[in-house]
Write a structure and sequence with these properties.
By secondary structure, the protein is α+β, with helices and mostly antiparallel strands. It is built from 4 helices and 8 strands. The chain has a single domain (11-179), classed as Gcn5-related N-acetyltransferase (GNAT) (Aminopeptidase). It has an 8-stranded mixed sheet, with helices on both faces. The protein is globular, with a radius of gyration of 16 Å. The structure holds coenzyme A. Coenzyme A is lined by residues 38, 41-42, 101-103, 108-114, 137, 141, 143-144, 146-147. The site of coenzyme A has 19 residues, from β5, α3 and α4. InterPro entries: Acyl_CoA_acyltransferase, GNAT_dom, N-acetyltransferase.
Length: 184
C-alpha cells in the first residue's frame, strides 16, 4: 500500500545520490539558479545574486510531500551537487504530479538526469501511488523534451497559451505526460 514517507527519502542510483537540500548547499543552489543561459527555458527568472538565492530558496529546505519535494542531485564519487529534481503541484485526489529538472551545464550530456528521473519515477509510482506525471516544457527546450521522451513521456498537448509568466513575459508551453507503466 503506497504511503507518503514521514521524512524526505534519499535515493542511490549507479552514479548519483538524490538527497534533501541543506542550508549549506547555498552556493550550489546559486550555481543552479543564477545561470542566466542555463535557465533560458525555465519558468522563473534567474537569481540575481547569492542573497537573492538564499531568500528565494528557503522553500528548497522544507519537506512538504503533499505539495512538492525537491532533491539535490549529487554525483556520488565527487559528492558535488550537479543538479536538482522535483515534483510539484501534487494532486492528491487525481494522483498526479508535475516534475522539474535542472543540471549544471558541465554535467549535461552524461545521462545523469535520465538516471535521476528514473529514481524519481520509481518513488512516485511505488511509494506515493502516483498515477500520472506531467512536465510542462517550452517548445524550444530540446534537451528537456529529449529527456522526457527518453523516460517514456508522450506529447499530449500544446502549445498551452500564456501558461508561464517569466520576468513579465508570457510563454506558451507544451504538455508531456507519463502514466504509470509507461516509464522506460
Ligand atoms: C533538461 C536537462 C536537465 C537535460 O539534461 P541532459 O544532460 O541533456 O539529460 P541527461 O542527463 O538525461 O543526459 C542525456 C544525454 O547524455 C547522453 N549520455 C551520455 N552518457 C549516458 C548514459 N550513461 N546514460 C544515458 N545517457 C547518456 C545521452 O546520449 C544524451 O545526450 P544527447 O541528448 O546528446 O543524446 C538540461 O538540459 C538542463 O538542465 N537544462 C536547463 C534547465 C531546464 O531547462 N530544465 C527543464 C525545464 S522544462
Amino acid at each position: 500500500m503506497p504511503s507518503t514517507p514521514k521524512k524526505q527519502p534519499t535515493f542511490a542510483t549507479k552514479r548519483l545520490r538524490l538527497r534533501a537540500f541543506r542550508a549549506d548547499d547555498i552556493e550550489a543552489m546559486h550555481a543552479l539558479y543564477g545561470d542566466v543561459d542555463n535557465l533560458r527555458y525555465w519558468s522563473t527568472p534567474p537569481s540575481a545574486n547569492l542573497g537573492a538565492t538564499r531568500r528565494a530558496m528557503r522553500w528548497h529546505l522544507v519537506y512538504r510531500p503533499r505539495q512538492y519535494v525537491i532533491w539535490a542531485v549529487e554525483e556520488s564519487k565527487s559528492r558535488k551537487v550537479i543538479g536538482m529534481i522535483n515534483y510539484h503541484h501534487r494532486n492528491l485526489r487525481e494522483k498526479r504530479v508535475d516534475v522539474g529538472w535542472l543540471t549544471l551545464p558541465q554535467y549535461q550530456g552524461k545521462g545523469y538526469m535520465t538516471e535521476a528521473g528514473r529514481a524519481l519515477l520509481r518513488h512516485l509510482f511505488d511509494d506515493l501511488g502516483i498515477h500520472k506525471v506531467e512536465a510542462l516544457i517550452l517548445p524550444a527546450n530540446k534537451p528537456s523534451v529529449a529527456l522526457a521522451k527518453r523516460l517514456g513521456f508522450r506529447k499530449e498537448g500544446g502549445p498551452i497559451r500564456d501558461r508561464w509568466s517569466v520576468g513579465g513575459k508570457w510563454h506558451s508551453v507544451m504538455l508531456y505526460g507519463l502514466i504509470t507503466g509507461e516509464e522506460r
